[in-house]
Structures are given as structure tokens and as C-alpha cells.
Amino acid sequence: MKIQIYDTTLRDGSQGESVSFSVEDKLRIAHKLDELGVAYIEGGWPGSNDKDAEFFRRASAQTWQTARLAAFGSTAHPKNQPEDDSNLRSLLDASTPAVTIFGKSWDFHVTTALKIPLERNCELIRNSVAFLKSKGRETIYDAEHFFDGFSANPDYALATLRAAAEGGADIVVLCDTNGGSLTSHIRRAFQRAQETVPVPLGIHAHNDSELAVANSLAAVECGAIQVQGTMNGYGERCGNANLCSVIANLELKLGCRAVGPEHLQHLASVSKFISQVANLPHRKDLPFVGDSAFTHKAGIHVSAVMKDAATYEHVSPAVVGNARRVLVSELSGKSNLLYKAREMGMDLSQHEEELKVALKHLKKLEHEGYEFEAAEASLRVLLESAVHGETEFFTIDNFRVVTEMRRDGEVTSEATVKIRLGERVVHTVAEGDGPVHALDRALHKALHQFFEPLRSVQLTDYKVRVLDASAGTAAKVRVLVQQTDGQESWTTVGVSENILEASYQALADGVRYKLLKHRKKDPATEHTGAPSPAPIAK
Fold first, then answer.
1. Taking the model in full, what pTM does it have?
2. How many CB atoms lie within 10 A of CB 340?
3. Secondary structure (H, E, C), 122-185
4. Radius of gyration of the chain (CA)
5. The CATH classification of domain 4-278, taken from the options 3.20.20.70, 3.40.30.10, 3.40.50.10490, 3.40.50.300
6. Which helix or strand (DSSP H or E) is residue 419 part of?
7. pLDDT tens-digit series, residues 406-418
8. How many CA atoms lie within 13 A of 417 on its CB side?
9. What's the whole-number mean pLDDT along residues 75-91?
């Protein structure tokens, strides 16, 4: 069975808090949705703002492969005839093959918001739809607040649907606008609507009760041929039905064709693309498309997944374009470390005892506040040290960082580092934009002359988290440092009550990781490898 996916990310989704799209953003997203294979893209409400009108002007001149563009608006104003209504005219001016208008289904809204007789509302629905159809447009009618209206006055709610059908609507979409309906109510009301209206039905669900996806799927099981929603569930209040979940469930669980398997494998990348364009973090816990959707942490889970992924995965991550991940933490078992080592290109299957030692050490560090889920480079260093032993390429005698605020308001930081390489002592000084930057520059300045691979490495990100807020300024902190050599980026971790010591630990682990990777490529190179700089005594 083919289900039409009607995407309203660019209109309903943009009504979500912190969501704002430029015209260029909307065009980029629309083309990405077109590539995904959705049936309809609702570009906005051209009668309400200049941005949406500009979108339609530009979109009408572009080529679309699979999707039909739809302009959105309302039925005619009660004081107007449809042919004289500026809102309906703006829908026609958008030059889209499809138009979508909404009207009132709840008698409470008709008498309180519109303040018109109930029959006049039905007349507006019927005549507005008929006018758009007379202009050759495919017309989709959204029955706003239908499920609340059905609860309050089922006969009238159904009468509004009949009015849309009499006007010639191609499809009537039942909307749970307030998002408060339970799935059992959706089924009952949908079945009554099917018995009443002789045109295909669709569903438009909001997520205020965390049921938008479930309600959308229930409507499909009842016979809906169209599902409206937004990518990543963006939308006003608690959002709309998340089309990422809807599409995946339709394809993989209900056996329906929504976008087709050839497009389904791009679902995760499209989801992330839209988050990036919206300048919002991509939620890790999103089903199917989030980074955590196929992530395993407990040792017993990982052990089972290594035997057969179906033990703890309801579908294969590859079918939606996602990937399996394994985390290491105090909950980890040997299976987690073996899996992570294999991901890193390390075969540790013959190092049973060393792995036990590494796991014991990891759990001790986790107890102290270390976290390796986001610092896999530090984990790599830990595993290498446990299995192959540490090679001290340098040790640190001491470092000092001074921050000075001058009378003119300028603030400067200077770091001094003294390191040893065998019998040699290197003493360097560097300034930086803040104490951590100065320390990083001083450390690299000391090492560059001995370790050529480090010359391309630079700091790209730095994060601090307080681990025990109740301790105030004496609290232990966790520092995450991201570095890159232009080809690869890696993250390392350090923990201490002293923020500079924690920063040094993370920076030094980043050095070690880079040298470890270089040693793997060229074992004969002098001074390659990555020893652990000795910790500073407190």
C-alpha cells in the first residue's frame, strides 16, 4: 500500500521554538526532502508573510523530482466571497500544483473564534474548496481540531467534512491540532469519518501527549492514505508527528511504501541535514535516526549484539542510514572493549589478561569522574598502554600558567613548560588567548622539534563540566579537548580539582593519540609512539 508523505517542516515545523528558516534554508531543505522521496512539501503560507511568498516565487522556477509543492492557507474570511478573498488569491499566485486549506471542525471554535453560525462555516469550507478546484488546483482540506470537535459534537464535526467533500476536496485530512487525543479515540473518530465522507482521508497529528507517531500509524491502519508531519518532529509547542519515525515504521513495520527502500537508507542523513540547517543540535535519542538509536552500553547487551545484532536491535541500522555504536563506561564488560578495539583497528582477542587489567582501570577512572563515551582517543591510549605497555617519550617536570589583567583592561596568559626527553631538558614559554590556549602552545612548542607529526596538530574545541556542583569552586571538573591534524579529529579527557591539570591531561592524551597513530603507520620512525606524560603531583 502506498502512503503519501506530506511534509510540513517548512511551515508547521518553523512554528517551533528556536526554529527559523531563511528563504535559502527552505529551498535547501525542500530539495533534500525531494531527494528523500516525499510526496508533498508544504512550503509555507504565502498570504501571511513575504518570506513564504518569496520562497514560492523561487521554488516555482526550480525542478522537483518526486514531490509536489503545496501552498498553505485558510478558508475564505467570513466577510468575503472566495473569489474576492486575498488569502485564497495568494494561494493561487504561489503557482503550486497543490494547495492546502484548513477550516474549523469544532463548533466551539466556530461560535467563539469566528463568531459565525455553524452553517455559515460549512458554507465557507464548501465554497473555498470549490473555488480552488475550479482553478485547476489539487486541493487538500485540513480539518482543524477535528478530533476535539468530534468529542464535543460529532454530528457537526462530520458535517464539516462532508462540506469539504461536496466542494470537491481531493483528500480530507483529520487534524489532532491540540495533540491531546488518545489513540483509541483517533481510531473511533477516524472510522466514523470513513463511513461519512466519500473521499480519501489523511492524518495530521501533534505531539502534546507524546502520541503523534502512534496516532498517525493508527490512522493508517484505519485507512488513511496520507500522513502529514515534520522532520525530527519540529513544530509548535511539543511538535508534530516525527516523519522520520513515521516513514521508518510505515516501511519496516507496516509493510507500506512511503518513500521506498532506496530512499529510506538516506533517512538519517536527511534528518541530520535539517538539524544543521535549522542550527539546532541533532537529538541523539531520536528513534531510527539519532546517534543513540543503535548504541549499546551494558556489557551483556554488547556481548549478545556481537553474536547477533537482532538480540538488542529491532531493525538493522543500515536500512535507515544509521550505524551501530558501542560505548564504554563503568557498565562495560570485556565485550565492549573488544568491540571498541575492533572499531579502532586493534585486535585484542589474544590479550585476555591485559583486557581484564584495562577494564579494571577504566572502571576506576570512571568512578573518579572520567568519561570515555565522548573521548575515544583517550580510550585508545588506555588500551594501547594496557596491552603493549607505556613508552615514555617525554615526562613533564612542571608547568606554570600566569594570567595578567593590565590596567588598560587587556588580559594576557603565559604558560611555561619544562619537559624531559631522556637526558635532555626542554624549557619553553608561550602566550595564548587564555590559560589553556597558552598551555597548549607551550607544550607543542616544546615537542615540535622532536616529534614532526605534531606540527600539524591544533586545538579545535574545549569543554568543561563541573562534576560536583556542591563543592563550589573546589569542585572536580571534567575537561574534553578536541584536536585535529587536518585529516582527522579526536577527543581526549582529563579530570581534576584543578582545571589546568585536567586540561593538561586531556592535551597530553591528544599528543599521545597522534603519536600512536603515527607509529602504526611508520614503526621505524624515531620518537614515534605516544607515551603518557607523567601526571603532576598534587
1. 0.71
2. 22
3. HHHHHHHHHHHHHCCCEEEEEEECHHHHHHHCHHHHHHHHHHHHHHCCCEEEEEECCCCCCHHH
4. 30
5. 3.20.20.70
6. strand 411-421
7. 878 888 899 999 9
8. 28
9. 95
